[in-house]
Write a structure and sequence with these properties.
Largest sheet: 11 strands, mixed
Structural class: alpha/beta
Distance between the termini: 15 Å
Strand content: 5-15%
Radius of gyration: 22 Å
Mean pLDDT: 93
Strand order of the largest sheet: 3-5-4-8-10-9-14-15-13-11-12
Number of strands: 15
Shape: globular
């Protein structure tokens, strides 16, 4: 629902605030489900300013975040940045301003900002560390005129520390809560961006994914998440997990907002050489041009029933059958009952774990050494910090088994090389073979028997492929779930067409019950 559809029936409440709060008179308008297009129109018609938008979101964060814990900290310079955007809007031609100009953005707390905000990956071990520069994607957000509103919470160290900690927990941020059902998992490491977007604490967010960390929380918080082709967006300045698999992408309430954010953050960054090769995939004219209502027409979409649609719940089976019919009705060519010949081998193999454990240690050590100031300079230092601050970091409750396993590795040896070779072979003989043999534009996926988690992200992760999650329904006391579309490298334009066509045909998303 657009911002202005709310104007007709939501009360306008005037808030009086002290001058010391740096908030002058503003009219409080509900920003529930506000889109980038809606905000831009409000700016254009002088019905709203960026300062007012920031104030409204900060009030909402103050009120709801103690429950949801989707935000770790807010930017003390947010009002100053908003006033700058408002000034620029008054003196510059509208055509010269990007779609993100004056729009508040939360970035996951593993994405560096060279400002008054901390970048800690949710850990007290990095509190007070000083990054050398903005992350590459943050530089692009600032160039687009976006307002960095703050840092979203996450699963600490992007789930690299332990198998024992629950999804959405970090020592600094506490336990993130699914805004639809507090008993449901918020899922995976980009839980904070998904919670914050879903609960309307901000307009748009950035998350990161190594394997499932954008797609899964987007699915379970009823938002749209794009996991780009690896290298399409810069990973410089991002606390790493695996440089081979890490990707930064938007988590938003709509496909259009996600496309606008993707347009702003893609491109070459001299601090991330992978962006040079991947830049060939960026379409001239950007991604917003692919937001077409008839985007499903003529698209060849494959369905692999095993393991992605082997649900244990009848309602999920019925819902996805309806969605498959929607794809057909909207003009897609649906090829059903396909098989990835080696899918069981891929799911059973330990290759991804073997490789990423070693990659994590190397990448994290390099990141920590580059910091201008830091309490820790290596993974070994972080493990030692946790042991010395065991109560603060809940080491007894959650452990740090993954850290210890990673510290025991010694670079890319024989086992790691074998694991990497296995993933190349599995990708070529599995997903790539299926996509090319049937000339598919995309593969559609669901959570399968892993519900509420997902198997689908793995085949995209090990091959560096893109994927997108779109709200698909609600299960048992309003627990959301999404539908996934994945494709070969550089297929984002097609995936956006498919996702937007599906979104517009179904319009499943509804805001959570928080007011």
């Amino acid at each position: 629902m657009s911002l202005f559809s709310f104007f007709s029936f939501l009360p306008i409440i005037l808030l009086s605030t002290a001058c010391s709060d740096k908030i002058d008179r503003f009219t409080r308008i509900s920003l529930v489900e506000a889109s980038i297009d809606g905000l831009r129109l409000a700016f254009k018609q002088n019905k709203l300013t960026s300062r007012e938008v920031v104030a409204i979101y900060l009030e909402r964060i103050q009120r709801l975040n103690p429950i949801l814990k989707g935000v770790i900290e807010v930017n003390p310079d947010a009002f100053e940045l908003a006033e700058k955007a408002d000034h620029e809007r008054r003196i510059k031609a509208p055509i010269s301003l990007s779609k993100l100009h004056g729009i508040p953005v939360l970035v996951k707390d593993n994405i560096a900002t060279k400002d008054k905000l901390n970048t800690t990956a949710g850990s007290f071990a990095l509190l007070g560390s000083v990054v050398p520069r903005d992350a590459g994607v943050v530089t692009k957000l600032r160039e687009a005129g976006a307002i960095i509103l703050g840092k979203a919470s996450l699963s600490e160290w992007s789930f690299a520390r332990s198998d024992g900690a629950p999804a959405g927990w970090s020592a600094r941020g506490g336990q993130g809560v699914n805004p639809y059902n507090s008993k449901a998992t918020p899922c995976s490491s980009s839980s904070g961006p998904a919670i914050s977007t879903a609960a309307n604490l901000v307009t748009v967010t950035l998350g990161t994914e190594t394997d499932g960390s954008i797609l899964c929380p987007s699915s379970l918080n009823s938002v749209v998440g794009i996991k780009p082709t690896v290298g399409l967006t810069s990973r410089s300045g991002v606390v790493p997990f695996s440089r081979r698999q890490d990707s930064v992408g938007p988590i938003c309430r709509t496909v259009s907002d996600a496309a606008y954010v993707l347009d702003a953050i893609v491109g070459i960054d001299k601090y991330d050489t992978a962006t040079i090769e991947a830049s060939k995939y960026i379409p001239r004219g950007g991604y917003a041009q692919f937001l077409k209502r008839d985007g499903l027409k003529g698209k060849r979409i494959g369905i692999v029933r095993h393991p992605y649609f082997e649900f244990n719940f009848t309602v999920l089976n019925q819902t996805f059958e309806q969605h498959f019919q929607t794809l057909r009705q909207e003009g897609a060519v649906v090829i059903d009952h396909l098989k990835i010949p080696n899918i069981d081998e891929i799911m059973a193999a330990q290759s991804e774990k073997t490789a990423t454990v070693a990659e994590f240690k190397m990448a994290l050590n390099a990141y920590l050494l580059e910091l201008e100031t830091s309490p820790v300079r290596s993974l070994a230092d972080v493990i030692d910090f946790n042991n010395k601050n065991a109560e603060l970091e809940k080491v007894k409750e959650y452990g740090q088994g993954r850290f210890i396993a990673a510290e025991a590795t010694n670079g890319i040896g024989k086992a790691e090389k074998e694991a990497l070779a296995n993933m190349v072979r599995e990708t070529k003989c599995g997903f790539v073979k299926l996509m090319t043999e049937y000339k598919l534009d995309a593969l559609v996926g669901g959570s399968g028997s892993a519900f509420p988690y997902t198997y689908f992200s793995q085949i995209l992760a090990i091959g560096s492929f893109p994927g997108i999650s779109v709200p698909a329904g609600y299960f048992d006391e309003d627990v959301p779930f999404g539908i996934f579309f994945g494709g070969l490298k550089g297929s984002e334009p097609t995936l956006i067409q498919i996702a937007y066509g599906f979104e517009q045909a179904t319009k499943v998303r509804k805001p959570p019950p928080f007011k």
